[in-house]
């Protein structure tokens, strides 16, 4: 472009530099303002708006169905059941279904809200001048009026189908969290109050897997046992041994202080739960001179000669004792289950 065809500009020098000004005195970089508003299809076609409304409602309903699927999966699938799923390999079906159903439930709520905002709520651009934080009374009144106007334009009050399905989806999603409370632990009434021990169940050495006779337990020793029916390859071995593990000691009968403990034992052989009544650690340290058993986690100390009474530490209850006898073949057997729950004393034992 030749010089005579270039627009004439003047340079005004100020304290902070030069500012370009066109020949007609207008700022060439002035704010162009908002572009003209272009209505959406849903703004001019009610049928399109109804289709969008049905789509949003479908997403909210799908979220509710996914929440129901989450709860059903939680009940239907065992936690330790593994299946091969390509390309994930061997996975827990329960975990997979929980993740998929919860993901769909949350995604559908978000997608429905976004679609609602983009297709049905007002999209007219508004410009408002920035104002001080401490607003005047008329400004607060204007904000409330704008809020009411926005609520009206969103269709929240007018579109009952959207409002109802949204409330339904939001109300059901928290049920997934309520269901997950099951994994905090078994209910004491149904789980911790019962172990695999029953009348006639033999005591088996946990290391050799051989049934125990009284002559296998020597004075001053500490042995560990499990139920004979609990096999090492059982799918729920860890869950069962965590409740049924035993600690066996043999004390001179004259040194046993608690009469009931002596009666529940056999010729000085006393059998207690191995699970500490504080937080469930395995009690495994034994001092034969004092007959004290020590939990290595928090130093709770139990006097095995006095009914496993707590003499030190944070444990709240004595170790439960298992009543034993000898069967016709001379093996140590249980006379029943523990009479009180094993493990941490976080609830009343009745």
From TrEMBL:
**What residue spans carry the region label Disordered?**
23-47
Residues in the signal sequence: none
Query: Looking at the keywords, is Oxidoreductase present?
Result: yes
Recorded hits in PROSITE patterns, A to Z, give:
RIESKE
Bias class Basic and acidic residues marks the residues at: 37-47
The UniProt entry, under InterPro entries, shows: QcrA_N, Rieske_2Fe-2S, Rieske_2Fe-2S_sf, Rieske_Fe-S_prot
Q: Which UniProt keywords apply?
A: 2Fe-2S, Cell membrane, Disulfide bond, Electron transport, Iron, Iron-sulfur, Membrane, Metal-binding, Oxidoreductase, Respiratory chain, Transmembrane, Transmembrane helix, Transport
User: Pfam families, per this entry?
Assistant: QcrA_N, Rieske
TM spans, by residue?
A: 56-79, 91-116, 161-181
Keyword Transferase set for record: no
Record-annotated Rieske domain positions? 264-333
What is the membrane topology listed in the Swiss-Prot or TrEMBL record?
Multi-pass membrane protein
Subcellular localization, per the record? Cell membrane
Check the record and name the PANTHER family matching this protein: CYTOCHROME B-C1 COMPLEX SUBUNIT RIESKE, MITOCHONDRIAL
Q: What does this protein do?
A: Iron-sulfur subunit of the cytochrome bc1 complex, an essential component of the respiratory electron transport chain required for ATP synthesis. The bc1 complex catalyzes the oxidation of menaquinol and the reduction of cytochrome c in the respiratory chain. The bc1 complex operates through a Q-cycle mechanism that couples electron transfer to generation of the proton gradient that drives ATP synthesis.
Q: Which family does it belong to?
A: Belongs to the Rieske iron-sulfur protein family.
Mind telling me what this protein is named? Cytochrome bc1 complex Rieske iron-sulfur subunit
Q: Which organism is it from?
A: Streptomyces polyrhachis
